[in-house]
Design a protein that fits this description.
By secondary structure, the protein is mainly α. The protein has helices spanning 7-26, 53-65, 72-90, 100-118, 122-150, 152-155. The protein is globular and about 45 Å long.
Length: 159
């Protein structure tokens, strides 16, 4: 039976969580709200390379969401949205679809949170959050994907 939670797995997950959190905090003014663009969401492509990115992205997002004006609801539901998107991304094999789960899941989850908690228009919130996600995930995430893909054999354990 293959060991899943190795020291390397936990180290990768921890590094990814720390980088996600640090990137979110570094640009905190644009990381929260209806018009948001989390630069850290560029990391959404990482589950393609390593399953350690799934808990890493979840924990990083959970820590970043502690500072959200939406409070505990964003900590729970926003972080779960990132977890679901990362799980879906892990099973995608077509490179241009890798960012799509993060864009769609977060647009609707965060859009719903903004609608219920901040009383902002639902579809406008979905549109704005989705646009910010698309910029972060495609404009930043895909170049990161191509860079990492060139060096994947040295960076990641083959699965």
């Amino acid at each position: 039976m293959k060991k899943v939670f190795t020291v390397r797995f936990m180290a990768e997950a921890g590094i990814i969580a720390a980088v996600y959190f640090a990137l979110t905090m570094a640009v905190a003014p644009i990381s929260y709200g209806q018009l948001q663009m989390r630069v850290s969401e560029a990391l959404c492509i990482l589950p393609f390379f390593t399953p350690a990115a799934i808990p890493g992205l979840f924990i990083g997002c959970l820590l970043a969401n502690i500072f959200s004006f939406l409070g505990i609801f964003d900590v729970v539901f926003g972080s779960l949205a990132t977890l679901v998107a990362a799980l879906i991304t892990h099973y995608i094999r077509k490179k241009w679809l890798l960012p799509l789960p993060s864009v769609v899941v977060n647009a609707f989850a965060v859009g719903a949170l903004l609608y219920y908690l901040a009383e902002l228009p639902f579809w406008l919130s979905v549109l704005y959050v989705g646009a910010g996600q698309a910029i972060a995930c495609y404009a930043l995430g895909m170049p990161l994907f191509f860079l990492l893909n060139k060096h994947k054999d040295r960076l990641f354990i083959k699965r």
